[in-house]
Every structure is written in C-alpha cells, then in structure tokens.
Amino acid sequence: MSNPFQVVGINPCCVPSKSRAGQLAESQKASAERRIIRAGSVDGMRKLDGGPFQMGTEDKEGFPADGEGPIREVHVDPFYVDATPVTNEQFREFVKATGFKTESERFGWSFVFQGHLAPELYKKHVEDTVLAVPWWCKVPHADWAHPEGPDSSIERRLDTPVTQISWNDAAAYAEWAGKRLPTEAEWEFAARGGLEQKTYPWGDELTPDGKHLCNIWQGEFPSSDLGEDGYTAPAPVRAFPANGYGMYSVVGNAWEWCADWFEPFWHRDATRFNPLGPLSGTQKAMRGGSYLCHKSYCNRYRVAARTKNTPDSATTNITFRCVRDT
Fold first, then answer.
1. What's the mean pLDDT when you consider all of the chain?
2. What is the CATH code for 45-99+159-325?
3. Which segments of 48-145 does DSSP mark as H helices, in order?
4. Where are the alpha helices (DSSP H) in the chain?
5. End-to-end CA, the chain
6. Minimal CA–CA distance to 122: which of 131, 114, 132?
7. pLDDT category, 14, cuts 50, 70, 90?
8. Closest CA to 28 of 20, 17, 40
9. Per-residue confidence band for 18, with pLDDT thresholds at 50, 70 and 90
C-alpha cells in the first residue's frame, strides 16, 4: 500500500538534498531568532509549561493534502495563551483605544454566510456569491461590529468571538495587547489540553454519552442546520466545557488565525523546536474549525486539522486568540 503522506518529488533518503538542507537551516534560524513578546497582561490567560508532544495526525478521516501528518515529536517553550478567543467586547475596547479600522471596514464589504441573511437580502446579493462556495455572500458594510451587514449588531453578543477579522486585523490587536498570534505548534499543543494524540480536545468520541462539546453543524450543509448543540451561529466563548488546560472554544465555533504562513509540507523538514512556518507565503494558517463544519463536508474541527486563508480575508466564522512568552 502506498504511503498517503509521501510527497511526490521529495527525496526519501535519510541524507537530505541541498534544497531540504537549506529549508531545514532556514527553519532553524527562524525559530532561533523568533520574536519574544512579554509586554501584555496575563489576565485571562493560561500558563502552559510547554515541552514535547506528538503533533499532527495520520487519521484516515483527515486530509493528508493539508499536511496534517506525519505524526512527529515537537517541542515548544513555556508560554501563556488566552483562555478564550478574543470577544466582541475585548475587540471593541481595542477599537475605542486606537481608532483602528479593520480591513472589512476599509474594503466596504465582507463575506456573510447565506443562512444568516434574510431571504430578500440573500436574493439581493446572490450574484455576489463565491463561485466555488456559493453559501458565502459579499455583503456591503458587513464588519466586526455588524457581522451580517449594517442592520446587524454585536450588542447582544459581546461574549461571543469577534468575527469579520482578517489576519492583519488580528495581528494589530495582538501587538496593541503586548501579545502575539500563536504558532501552529503552540496552538495545537494548547488545544490538545494535555491529551496525547486524541482527535478532539476531550478525547476520540465527538459526542460522548450523546453530549455536544463544541459548536459545529448538525443537519444537511448548507441548507439546514438543526442546531442540536444549541447554536447555529457563533456561541459565547464559554458555552462549552474547557479542555484540560482550561481553554474554551478550542474547536468549532470559529476558526482561529495562527502566526504561520501556510505550506502543506514545510514541517517535514522544519525544526522540531519551536517550529515556525515558512518565512513568506500567500496564505496564513487557521486552526480549530467553526460552526459551519460538518463531517460530510469539512471535519476540520479535529485538533490536528489545518486550513488557510489570505491574510486580508474575513468572514463570520474567523476569529483569533493571543499568546505571549513567559
């Protein structure tokens, strides 16, 4: 049987090629010279001791092309991580303090899921859907404070994750807070909550004893979300139990931006100590899945799953949390 994680064109020999050796050296240098951030308050954060863990997966229900595997031992230094994603209330404080304008505000529009638009509004914008994923509509004046458009508001959802946030917006908030975005390795270490090679932050069963432990899609995507977990949109950040490290809303609910540029197989030759993504790229890594994820379409609410988006993109299912060094 062929190895599903084998990369065509990559030399499998134990002696690295020049290009592989160069990539490894670049990775080690980037890790050694990574920026250390210690200015931010640790209120609302969890201190993690770091150390080695088994990163990645070779789950048969996973997506090998995303670079989920192979499983490898990775070491991360101690760090603090936000117990929850950044909320609407927290982001509003940032905007009030700085006058920051998000990219969606500057663009004048953003993506909204079709199920969150009134039928007449969806008909109005149906020609502005994305061809490959027609459930996303370009809605004028949708932004973090008006996630579904100008007639929507965050006033009754201040404790839900802020959405309509691009990677660039998230990085700006993190810098203001004296923190930074997590690397993929830090995010996965934290998301696992001390469990080794489990599918979810709580174990291998999605709904143990029939109990929903995260906010994802139930029903037929994209036409019918049954909301059996209690939600059909972003849930409050503490709506479900925390993982073993006291972190809430780790999977499902909303995707979380990571610091790394995304490249499916970079990590095969990257350093195993505080690894970073490539030094450049076109898309940033995201982790955790969202309320729109369903096994039939995108079961990326597993802790080792990955995806990506351009750093200027924003939707109603993308958020972030911050980390800082000890």
1. 91
2. 3.90.1580.10
3. 88-98, 103-107, 119-125
4. 18-32, 88-98, 103-107, 119-125, 167-176, 184-192
5. 45
6. 114
7. very low
8. 20
9. low
Q: Is 184 left (phi over 0), alpha (psi -120 to 50) or beta?
A: alpha
Distance, in Å, from the CA atom of 106 to the CA atom of 101, rounded to the nearest integer, reads: 7
In the chain, the percentage of residues whose pLDDT exceeds 70 is 90
Long-range contacts of range 63-72, CB-CB < 8 Å, 24 or more positions apart?
63/300, 63/305, 64/4, 64/5, 65/264, 66/264, 66/305, 66/306, 66/307, 67/263, 67/264, 67/265, 67/266, 67/267, 67/306, 68/304, 68/305, 68/306, 69/5, 70/5, 70/268, 71/197, 72/267, 72/272
Helix (H) or strand (E) holding 219: strand 219-220
Contact 182, 188 (CB under 8 A): no
Token pair of 92, please? 């509003």
Give the span between the Cα atoms of 260 and 127, in whole angstroms: 34
Instruction: Give the residue extent of every domain in the chain.
Output: 45-99+159-325
CA distance 318 to 22: 34
Q: Which two tokens stand for residue 24?
A: 């490894």
65 contacts 307 by C-beta, under 8 angstroms: no
Of 316, 323, 13, 325, which is closest to residue 166 (Cα–Cα)? 316
User: DSSP 3-state assignment of 51?
Assistant: strand
d(CA 323, CA 301): 21
Question: Which amino acid is it at 288?
Answer: G
Phi-psi region of 306 (alpha: psi -120 to 50; beta: other; left: phi over 0): beta
Phi, psi of 20 (to 5 degrees): -70, -40
Mean pLDDT of 81-101: 98
pLDDT per position as a tens digit, 44-62: 999 999 999 999 999 998 9
Nearest by Cα to 222 from 156, 122, 143, 135 = 135
Band (pLDDT 50/70/90 cuts) for residue 11 is: very low
